Each structure stands twice: as structure tokens, then as C-alpha cells.
What we know:
- The complex is a heterodimer of chains A (544) and B (390).
- Chain A has 544 residues and is α/β, with parallel strands linked by helices.
- In chain A, 47% of the residues lie in helices and 18% in strands.
- Chain A has helices spanning 2-39, 49-56, 77-82, 116-125, 151-154, 159-177, 181-187, 199-207, 235-249, 292-299, 370-385, 408-439, 447-469, 472-490, 503-543; strands at residues 59-70, 86-96, 99-111, 137-139, 145-147, 214-223, 229-232, 255-264, 273-275, 280-283, 309-315, 324-326, 338-341, 345-349, 364-367, 396-398.
- In chain A, the strands form five sheets. A five-stranded mixed beta sheet of chain A has the order 8-6-11-14-13, with helices on one face.
- In chain A, helix 1 (2-39) packs antiparallel against helix 15, helix 2 (49-56) packs across helix 12 and helix 7 (181-187) crosses helix 12.
- Chain A is elongated, with a radius of gyration of 38 Å.
- The relative contact order of chain A is 0.12.
- The longest helix of chain B has 30 residues, at 2-31.
- Chain B contains nine helices and eleven strands.
- Chain B has a domain at 33-295: 3-Layer(aba) Sandwich (Rossmann fold), CATH 3.40.50.
- Chain B is α/β, with parallel strands linked by helices.
- The relative contact order of chain B is 0.11.
- Chains A and B meet through helix 1, helix 8, helix 9, helix 10 and strand 13 of A and helix 1, helix 3, helix 4, strand 11 and helix 9 of B.
- Strand 13 (338-341) of chain A pairs antiparallel with strand 11 of chain B.
- Chain A: Keywords: Endoplasmic reticulum, Glycoprotein, GPI-anchor biosynthesis, Membrane, Transmembrane, Transmembrane helix.
Amino acid sequence: MHHGFSVCVCHSERRRGQLAALSIAAVVILIGVPLWWRTTETYRAWLPVSQIQELANLQLQLSADVEVVFARGTVTPEQQKKVPLTLTQDDEHVVDGDLRTTICDLMVTKYEGCKVSNVLNSFVSRGHSVEVQDVDVYVGQRRTALLRIGAQTRVGRTLEQLLSHLEPRVKQVLQVMSFSHTDITAALSDRVRLSPGNKESIADSMRAFKSSPGYEITFSLLNPDPKSHRLHWDIEGAVQTYIQPLLRKLAPLANFSIDSQTLYYAMLGVNPRFDSSRSAYTLNSDSLAHVINPVEARLGSNAASSNPVLNFLLYVPDAHHSPLHINDHKKQEVPSNAFHSPRWGGIMVYNVNDFYGPEAAFPVDINIDMAKVMGVFLAQLRLLLGVQSSAPPPRFLVAPCSSAGIADWELDRLMWSRSVENIATATTTITSLAQLLDQIGNIVINDNIAQQVSSAVTSLQLAVAELESGNLRFALQYSKEAILASERAFFDPSLLHLLYFPDDQKFAIYIPLFLPMCVPILLSLLKIVSDARQRRREKHAKAD
Amino acid sequence: MKILTLWSLFSTYLLASSLNIENHAAQFFSSGHTNNWAVLVCTSRFWFNYRHVANTLSVYRSVKRLGIPDSHIVLMLADDMACNHRNPKPATVFSHKNMELNVYGDDVEVDYRGYEVTVENFLRVLTGRLPPSTPRSKRLLSDDRSNILIYLTGHGGNGFLKFQDSEEISNVELADAFEQMWQKRRYNELLFIIDTCQGASMYERFYSPNLMALASSQVGEDSLSHQPDLAIGVHLMDRYTFYLLEFLEDIHPASKTNMNDLFKVCPKSQCVSTPGHRTDLFLRDPGSVLITDFFGSVRKVEITMETINLTDPIEQVEQSPVNGELQKERNSYVDQLPVSEIIHQKPKQRDWHPPDGFILGLWTLILLVFFKTLAFQETAVGSKPPYRVQ
């Protein structure tokens, strides 16, 4: 009896123990594990991954409208009736494996009674000499170009011959004035590494600054000899008159901020050589490269912004080393006496020894001729901003630069290449960001990043659509918005993936936490299972 | 005879000079970079790691001498040796025994100092993910035409580099950071030099193009220090950087030495460890890469051929009178920092984390319950008074 009672007591106690172990295991598995999972999860906002994938296969279509006006006398009345009103020409180029650009020109023909010779005459009367025989195409200030059909083609040509003669020439004009395959490829050099082909195109792509939302322009006057020269330059007026018109026209592209400074006792880093044949000091083209570095340390920059800086330096040589001339490779004097460095700025040497005689009382007051100086700086600015294109094809005459500093078609050209560049850069940024976030599962994606990515994707799609329909201003605006949003998303400080955890480190962190807890639970579960099995064996034994 | 030799000399001179011009034109296009940056990092602190700071400052000095301006150098020093209390010669950091060469000088611009040198800040500088309030001098503002030199020194091991004696950066993280730089085209070509123990392990995992790497020792080897100075009491330089500095002292901004000479710096006889290098990711042939492509800053220069003829006279900038009299600008003080707002700020809402002892308390509870039931079981069996057999 005693034996049975103790067995009964043992059994209920054991039952209680087993229930306790089971309930602890249940709590751990049902509540503990999900709780741990939720609290160690990283917040990842949703990203439009599928749209980003679509954008990665970039297909750009650029279209430009061309209006062809036939001057009186070039086309006979019967031919007039037969000329088609619109003509579309498509040109497809594969730039990279997954990138295509299609260039189409729509030609609209119109007839007007204007005489070509009138225009050329008025051009000549303004004082520019032009050999009318040598020129086949004249590109004007705004968006017009005059084509001359050769004398032999005017009489007795059929319509088809005329059109077939015209098409390639119109295409050539379009390539000069709007965009060509090389321009677009250069703009896409972010995605497509330019194969070392044309040396000129490589130099062009290296020279101009990349597209940026803002630029800082600094004009510096370097006076190494204040004891001899007291220099006065009306920089504010000069900037207002000469530089601001250009920058106002370029306003849709970027914001510009201008400042100026005067540096005293700033020497060039190289010693000029005295050339007795010209009784002047000379700087070789080889030594020009070493001029910039010592000066740059003293130039300073606006610490608040990260925009690229263009530096324009005006150096007035000291009285003992005047006049100072720059020689080119062939040891010839350079007429502009200036040089520029790609993606940095330009330096001009301004000689003032003509302004005073040997008996002048030092320091001499000198007023700098800002028109001459700004002429050089403006030319360098055009080169550095990418406005200047490479040399035009033969038998082309381009109208010289107006006071605005930039022709309308040059602006268009710049806008085309900038839009394409912005779209390409923004696409690359967004796709690489999506790839990075996909690869690293531990990065937290905040809401603001997801919002920036979505707005970048929307802007990109709009920009591509606007390019297709040929609305250049809207395309540029959308592409700027896209690139701003994508840069903000990519360079957000919270995306630092300092979370590289190799798997063995993960084990090393979790084992000391969970193992001591799980071992008793597991042991008691095993004990329960083995007891149950033993009881079943006993039952079978009893049954037998 | 004399005339013949004279003439032949003259013609060879002409040929050489014309070739020289061609070479210059070719060089313009061969390297493809327009500016140079340098990121120089010393990762260890404490006085006995004096040599790491001296290493970094020596490279800084060479790089500045060869032309890279301070605005293009990001210098990170984890500890201040020049003003350390244990420095018998304050405001100096020597790199040669007998105090021959002071690399500290008075124009050293340290961008990240002391405790600011962390793995996080280093990666932020490389990838560009800095908070918007960071000043320009602390940023790496490189573009796709920048050649960057990255120099790291400190204590390292197989696959990691120790920062500040409390954290480390692994070679995978470094390779990923370089890949992110490549994705955003933040460099044209990158030269990575590391002077630590087992330094070659740090460049094993690189996979981005246009990277060249040099290390002072192979995996399994230690990089050794060069010489102690008895007056200062610590080792002044590491061997690899000492011979590197000696090599760089012979380089001037116009020299044409190429990378193959750099690979030969500090052979095993001088360095005891075997320096290694990696060039398989680099597109150009190392023999055509100049030392000054990375260590110096030789600018490309073009002569300005065209000018614009400006004929308009300068318009005078006029003050437009308002209400009949000139409106003077009132000068006023800039708003001072809103101190009261800052002091009485509410603490930011941070994400709720469970209290630290939570896990500890949880399994203590579980263990307690477990043992309690076990004990209860035992005492339950033991405490029942035995029934006397009737």
C-alpha cells in the first residue's frame, strides 16, 4: 500500500514537472522566437524595384524638328507642288549592349520669298569679311543656318535628285547644331567607358566640367608687386556686363555663384626665362603645368558648398619681370597670353609695363582693361563649361560670338548633352543603389530614402518621355530633378553598410545568450520523451 | 668629319625634341586624370605607436612637396604625437634618428584627428555619405577624372585593420567601399598602399576596376619597424615606409619614374618582410604609369587660342534710390546660436530597445522555475512521511 501511494505521488509530481518543462518550451518557441525575430528586424521601406529594372535598359529617343525653307528661285513651281510636307528620318545607334539612342529628324518644308543673298550682304556690310565662294553653310546666331545649293545643281535637277542631295547636308547641319553620335556617346561616358578613339574627343570630354547643379566661379587678381603697381579693376561692372548675360542664358542648366578676390605677394611657382631677342621674359609651355599648384594653396574656396569651382586668375607680373609672354610648343608667342587647365580654370598674364615710363613714381596707379581680360576669360569659361564644340566641318562658317556669349543653337546643344548625361547618371545611380540595398540585407531603408528613389524614378520616366517628344527645356528640368533626388538618396548618411557580419560572428553573438536557456529545456524535453517511451514499453510488457 | 658629327648631333637633337613634343601630347591623353586626391590614414593611438603617425606624416609631406594641395588631401591621424605629454621635443614628429627630419612643421593640416578617426568616418569619407554639415576640408570631392592615393598604416592582421584599438575594418568592407566608389565614378584610378602586418590580406578581396595595391608584407608575415631613437624612446618609422620615403625624396614634379620602380622599393633584404603588389585590376600597364600620376599633381594645361572680342562698355552699377534717398544697408549681427532652445531641448525619441538585462532576467527566471519544480518534485517525494505498515 505504501509502495502504491508513493508511486502515485511520484507520478503526479513528475506530471507537474513535465507540464512545467513543456509550458516553458511552448513559451520560448511560440512567444520568444517571434519576439526575437521582430525586434532584430531592420526596417526596410518599399522600393519600386521593377521600375528600376526597366530603367536599367535605357532606350533614349532624341528628336529634333527642322524647318527647311526654300528660297525663291531654287525650286521650280512644278517641283514645289510635289515636295512632301514632312519627312522623318530615323537613325539608330547602339551605344552599349543595352543602350540605344534613336535620333530622328522631322523636316517640315515651307516656302517663303526670301532671298539668300540679302542675308549674306547684310552680314558683309556689318564689317565681317567673308569669302562667299568658300562657304557652303553659314550658321547664324539664333537657330538658323543657310545652305547654298551649288550652281550646277540649280538647273535641270529632278525633285528626287534635289531631295537626295539635300538630305545628307541637312543631316550634317543638324549634327553641328544639335547633336551628333559622338556628342551623345561623350555624354554617356559615365556608363560607357570611351574606347581610346579620337584624341580630340577624349580631350573634349576631359576638359569640360561634368553636369552639376551649381558652379562657383572665382576671379582672382594676383599682384606680386604691390610696391610698384597699384592695380584697379572694375570686376563688379565687368562681371555684370560681360559674364552675367552668359550665365543668365545658362540659368536653366545650373546655378552660378561668382566671387572675386585680390591676392598680394602671390608669385608664380616657376622662374621665367629672359629672351633677349624679344627683350621680354618668357614662360615655356612645359613649365605652365607647374604654375598652378603653388598658387592654388592660397586661393581658398567657399567652404559651405561642394560645387565644383572654376578659378580665373589674372596675373600682373612684377616690375622686374615685365613683360612676360607665354610661348607655345613652337616657341611662338601666344596672342591671348593665357592658358587654361581642364576642369580647373584659366590663368591670364596681363603686362602693364606699357602704361608707365621708367621715371614714374612708384607705386603706379593702373586701370586694367577689363574688356580685353573678360574676352579671354569668357572664351575660357565657354570651353570649361562645354559650350564650345569641336571645330566645325570644312566649308562651314559659324557666326562669331555675340555679346551674350553664347548662340541659341550652342545652348540647345549643351542642353541636349546635359539632359542625356543627367539621365544616364541618375539611372546608373538608382540601379546601383537598388542593387546595393538588395545585396545587403542588414541596411535600414528609411522612408525618406524610398521617397527620394520613387521621385527620381518618376522624374526619369518623364524626362525620357520629354526627350522623345523633343521638348528640350522640360526634359532638362526633369533630368535635373531626377539627378538631385537620386544623389540625395544614394549619398544619404544613414545608408552606411557597416553591418558586414560574417556568419561565424553571428553564431558567436547568439550562442552565449540562447544556449544556457535552451539546454535545460531540451534536456527536460528529452527526459519527457524517454519517460514516455519507457512507460509505453512497460505497458506493452504488462500487457504481455 | 667634325661637320658630319655636328650635323648628326643636331639632327638627333631635332628628332628628340620633336619626339618630346609628341610625348607630351601623348601624355595628355595617356593618364586620363585631371586632378589628384590623397587620403592618408593613421589608425593607431598611444605613444608607442609613434611610428605610425610618423609614417603618415612622411607620406603627407612627400605628397605636398610633389604638388597636391591641402584642399585635396584628407589626413586622418588617430593620436597627437607632437603635443603628447611624453614627447621630449614637443611640436615635432621625427622620421629619422638623430632627429634629422621633422615631418610635422607648421603647415600640417589634419582633417580628422583623435577620436574622429573611426571605421565609420573612414568609410563615410570614401563613399561620400557624410552629413550635410561636414565642411569641405573633410570631404573627398573627387570626380571621374581623379586619381586617388590611399595610404593606411597601423596594426593589422589577416583580413582586418585595427582602428583605435577598439574596432576593425575588414577587407570585405574595404572592397565593397571601393566598389561603391566605382559605381558612382568617384575615381579614375586608385593606388592603395598599406603598411601593416599581413598587409597583403587587405587587398585580396578587391574586385573593382582600376585599382592598384601595394602592401608591406604578405599574409603570415609581420611588418617590422625601422629604428628606435634613444632620445625619444620609441621606434620612429616602419621599414617599408622609411624606404618608400627615401625613394620619394628622389622624385620631383617633372620626373618620369614609373610604378615598376615603386614595386622594387624595400626588397626582402632591407625589409625582412616581403612587400607585395596587385595590378591585375589595373587597366594600364604599370610601366606606363608615372609616380607623379598618384603622388604628385601635374596639371594638364592647354593654351587658350581663341578670345572673344567684347566691345560693349562696362555699364555702371547704380544704386537705385528708394523714396528719394539712398537706402543704406543696415548691418546687424547674425542670429546667435539659439542657446536656450538647445539647452531646453527634449531628448530625441529613440527606438525602444528592451532593457539590457532582459535576456539575462528571462533565462534566470526560466532556470529558476525549472529548478524549483525539480526541487519541489524531490522534496515532494522526500517529505511525505512514510506510512507505517499496519
